[in-house]
Write a structure and sequence with these properties.
Elements lengths: L28 H5 L2 H13 L17 H10 L5 E3 L7 H5 L8 H23 L6 H25 L10 E4 L11 E3 H19 L13 H14 L3 H12 L25 E4 L31 E3 L1 H7 L6 H4 L2 E3 L8 E8 L6 E11 L2 E6 L2 E4 L1 E5 L2 E8 L2 E9 L3 E2 L2 E2 L1 E3 L17 E4 H14 L3 H14 L21 H13 L5 H7 L4 E2 L10 E2 L12 H7 L6
Antiparallel strand pairs: 1-5, 2-3, 4-17, 6-16, 7-8, 7-13, 8-9, 9-10, 11-12, 12-13, 14-15, 18-19
Helix pairs in contact: 2-5, 2-6, 3-5, 5-6, 6-7, 6-8, 7-8, 8-9, 8-12, 9-12, 12-13, 12-14, 13-14
Length: 560
């Protein structure tokens, strides 16, 4: 009988940063039960493991954190991000759907998630339910942490629930006693996640959250439960859960009105249901989540900034360029001060499976937009789509989409459209400091919108979508009605909702899963060093590889 590598936890010294706690893998449940204060300390230690750089396999790599790898592994599978440059970082394998079972992000995330689950189980086993309000609060928080780790593992290493309950899931851990290891079914894992969140909500109900949004609460448990019901295809339960959580309040009342500053102030915002809290002295610089997407100065100073908005995402925003979600969080690197325009379109890169941009300065005269080559003017083809002008060129006899923007500094032909969702631009000392948001009301409202769309309440779905759009500064024709959504190019209200999820939740780790769990394909045919391809929802590559270290010890089957 084999033990799971990560269940048989060795004694490990954890970095506590601002939290003084007992390392939860060096205290038994009995020891914690005999020392009530240790329960809170160990719970804080479980929170800390989401952000701390833990010693892994005898070494500590500054970039290895649960939160960083979760956002990499989840977002890079989607179509919001283009990678501008080939890199030796394992993230290149992730974005190319070519991850290896020995890659550090894949291995560390699996190890760390089960490490947190072990710590949560230790607290749950040590604290009798009903002994005190404070004890029940600690129990509720740990049931939540156990649930979200199992959920993240399921999102990355197993097929969506909607593909079948009997598919192979991840290893389910509900005890510190782990004599054997086997992969449970997807259904069994999701059942446990649901039960843990119901339990957490019951224990946390009517209790004041014990700090800022870095701690979970009843609302966080119910908000995550709405996501789990959505993933399970239980749309009526999504609606019931969100309506109960709103308690008669409007969707708008739960959204932060200052969206342009929301992510920078996530810990204090009432919209945040849970974020991984970082303090000023925990700025990770180039090892932070934000460094992938943004740099406060020129490229490479403070952040790597090699991951940019993809062209299709930019095009979706530019249907309504006044959208605050775009104007506040997309920053061009060194745009031309004179406003000089540039046109770009994707062309094949010889000897590779990706495409790069062809770039030209762009001009306009009475005949339209054009670029110059070999002394000749070449006019762009202009067409009206979705109420805006779209441009095309003909390349090798093929009609190709072209993009016209203010000329911006490019990296390997990719104009640097950088994302600031994980940055604090007003923090001069720590501009890349962020408390990444794991769960917020914006998502919960869209969970209900999707459930409404799937149960035939199209007006309810559009009302929820419009609540997000109004918060984003959109009005009048930019809001959807039952009469105009088809004019915007949509064949169903569900299509409207899924695009709104993309606009609202881009870079927050949900896009690929939203597409695949709905049985759709992901179109990644845009410039960048990721392969130019369409990924089908049944492609086995959508599952990450189980780490080699795990398989070699426990013998569980690989994702093939």
């Amino acid at each position: 009988m084999k033990k799971i590598l990560l269940g048989a936890v060795a004694s490990l010294t954890l970095s506590a940063c601002d939290l003084d706690y007992f390392p939860n893998d060096s205290m038994t449940s009995d020891q914690m039960a005999g020392n009530p204060s240790s329960t809170e300390y160990s719970t804080d230690g479980n929170y800390s493991m989401f952000k701390d750089m833990l010693e892994y396999k005898g070494s500590e790599y500054s970039g290895s954190t649960y939160v960083r790898y979760f956002f990499q592994m989840s977002e890079f599978r989607g179509d919001n991000v283009c990678l501008a440059n080939k890199t030796e970082d394992p993230l290149y394998n992730e974005i190319c759907y070519n991850d290896l079972e020995t890659d550090l992000p894949t291995s560390y995330f699996w190890w760390c998630a089960y490490h947190i689950i072990y710590g949560a189980n230790a607290v749950i086993e040590s604290q009798p339910e009903g002994a005190s309000d404070e004890g029940d609060r600690m129990l509720g928080e740990n049931y939540f942490l156990r649930a979200i780790c199992h959920l993240h593992l399921s999102m990355l290493y197993s097929r969506p629930y909607t593909f079948g309950r009997d598919n192979m899931g991840v290893v389910l851990r509900t005890s510190t006693d782990t004599p054997t290891t086997e992969r449970s079914t997807v259904g069994a894992v999701y059942d446990q996640i649901r039960d843990d969140l119901v339990k957490a909500a019951g224990l946390l109900k009517d209790k004041v959250r014990r700090g800022d949004a870095g701690y979970v609460s009843y609302d966080a448990a119910m908000g995550l439960l709405s996501r789990v019901y959505l993933y399970r295809g239980e749309d009526d339960k999504v609606i019931e859960t969100v309506n109960g959580l709103l308690g008669g309040a409007s969707a708008e009342s739960k959204l932060d009105p200052d969206y342009a500053r929301y992510f920078e102030n996530a810990l204090s915002s009432s919209e945040t249901l849970w974020a991984v809290a970082h303090e000023d002295y925990e700025d990770r610089g180039r090892e932070s989540v934000g460094s992938m997407y943004w740099t406060p100065d020129q490229r490479g100073v403070g952040g790597w900034a090699e991951m940019y908005y993809s062209d299709p995402l930019i095009a979706l925003y530019e249907r309504h360029p006044e959208d605050i979600r775009f104007t506040a969080y997309c920053e061009r690197l060194n745009p031309d001060e004179t406003g000089q325009l540039q046109v770009r379109w994707a062309v094949a890169s010889e000897g590779t499976d990706f495409r790069v941009n062809q770039l030209y300065d762009c001009f306009r005269d009475d005949n339209g937009y054009y670029y110059e080559e070999n002394g000749s003017r070449h006019y762009l083809q202009a067409e009206q789509e979705y109420g805006r002008t779209q441009f095309y060129v003909t390349v090798g006899g093929e009609k190709t989409r072209a993009y016209v923007d203010v000329k911006t500094e490019s990296f390997n032909t990719c104009p640097a459209f950088m994302c600031k969702k994980f940055a604090s631009p007003t923090n001069a000392a720590h501009p890349l400091l962020s408390s990444p948001v794991m769960l917020r009301w914006g998502e919960v409202i869209l969970n209900r919108a999707e459930a409404y769309a799937k149960t035939g309440n199209e007006q309810g779905a559009l009302d929820d979508v419009n609540a997000l759009r109004r918060r984003a500064g959109l009005s009048e024709e930019a809001l959807y009605t039952l009469d105009n959504y088809r004019e915007a190019g949509y064949s169903s209200v569900l299509d409207v909702v899924l695009d709104e999820r993309r606009l609202e939740l881009c870079f927050e780790g949900q896009r690929a899963f939203d597409v695949f769990r709905n049985g759709r394909s992901l179109d990644r045919r845009f410039a960048g060093v990721q392969p130019w391809e369409v990924v089908d929802c049944d492609d086995p590559r959508i599952l990450y590889r189980i780490p080699y270290d795990e398989i070699s010890v426990s013998g569980i089957p690989q994702n093939d």
